[in-house]
Amino acid sequence: MTPIVTEYPTDWEDYELIDTGDGGKLERFGTYRLVRPDPRILWTRRLPPEIWDAANALYHRADIKSGEWEVKTPPPNPWIIHYHKLAFTLRPTEFKHVGLFPEQAVNWNWLEKTIAGKPLNLLNLFAYTGGATMAALAAGARVTHVDAAKSAISWANDNLRASGLSEKPVRWIEEDAYKFILREAKRGKTYDGIIMDPPRFGRGSKGEVWKLEHDLPKLLLACKQILAPSPALILINAYTADISSLVLHQMLTDMTSSHGGSVS
């Protein structure tokens, strides 16, 4: 089996993970600093309390599904940061997120290198605010962007406009990912590559329930029906400790066994 390598983005200028510890992380988005909780950060903080206390906003978790922001200083309006040529419009949400997962930059770089100007027809599932969509479009691909949340698709549109990519070939689909794949398979539609960032738990626009451990295997099985005979890429990200990189490696190996290539 190919060794599993952990990668971190090293070329962010508008984002910085300043410190972590005691169930939280101190981050900088542009010039704005946030403290957000993360229950898996079990170690102690390295920086003194006064640096943490100087954050512009803190998110306080009420329970596993909700919380609220304590805003000491309002964020910039508009609040936009950049990664290379990609622009991201940020805003605090009720679930502690701000519309961007900075660690995904390693995937955007990989997409840029893999696409390398080829006019690939790609499918981006659970596409959220469009980081991978923008990276693929900027690299020369055509993208079908699928997300069950209308608000996420609207946010992704804002990001494309801010990045100067709104004229690129993108198709917007507000639908449950699994249902969309089944419909595409019936139509005989195929894609040169698939990108996905499935959540641990979620609900579709019509109340469909998604649970990662239960639904990811059948989603990957369905995806096999819409892959081109010689696909260029498949990228899976899972932001949860419930499924390890080793498990994802084996699942992707099963999915692509008849297509050749390698899994890393």
Write the layout of secondary structure elements.
Elements: E1 15-21, E2 24-29, E3 32-37, H1 49-53, E4 57-61, E5 67-71, E6 80-83, E7 86-89, H2 105-115, E8 121-125, H3 131-138, E9 142-147, H4 150-162, E10 170-174, H5 177-187, E11 193-196, E12 201-203, E13 209-211, H6 212-223, E14 233-236, H7 245-255
Parallel strand pairs: 3-4, 8-9, 8-11, 9-10, 11-14
Antiparallel strand pairs: 1-2, 2-3, 4-5, 6-7, 12-13
Helix pairs in contact: 2-3
How much helicity do the residues have?
25-40%
The profile of the biggest β sheet is:
5 strands, mixed
- Helix count equals 7
CATH architecture of the largest domain: 3-Layer(aba) Sandwich
Number of domains: 2
- The low-confidence runs, each spanning 5 or more residues with pLDDT under 50, are none
Instruction: Output the radius of gyration.
Output: 19 Å
CATH class of the largest domain: Alpha Beta
Total DSSP E strands: 14
Summarize the structure.
This is SAM-dependent methyltransferase. It holds the Pfam family Methyltrans_SAM. The protein has 264 residues and is of the alpha/beta class.
Tell me what you see in this structure.
With 264 residues, the protein is α/β, with parallel strands linked by helices. The protein has two domains: 15-89, Sandwich (Immunoglobulin-like); 102-255, Rossmann fold (3-Layer(aba) Sandwich), CATH 3.40.50.150. The chain is built from seven helices and 14 strands. Strands 1-2-3-4-5 form a five-stranded mixed sheet, with no helix packed on it. Strands 10-9-8-11-14 form a five-stranded parallel sheet. Strands 6-7 form a two-stranded antiparallel sheet. Helix 2 (105-115) packs parallel to helix 3 (131-138). The longest helix has 13 residues, at 150-162. The radius of gyration is 19 Å and the shape is globular. The mean pLDDT is 92. Keywords: Methyltransferase, S-adenosyl-L-methionine, Transferase. One of its GO terms (molecular function) is methyltransferase activity. Pfam families: Methyltrans_SAM. This is SAM-dependent methyltransferase.
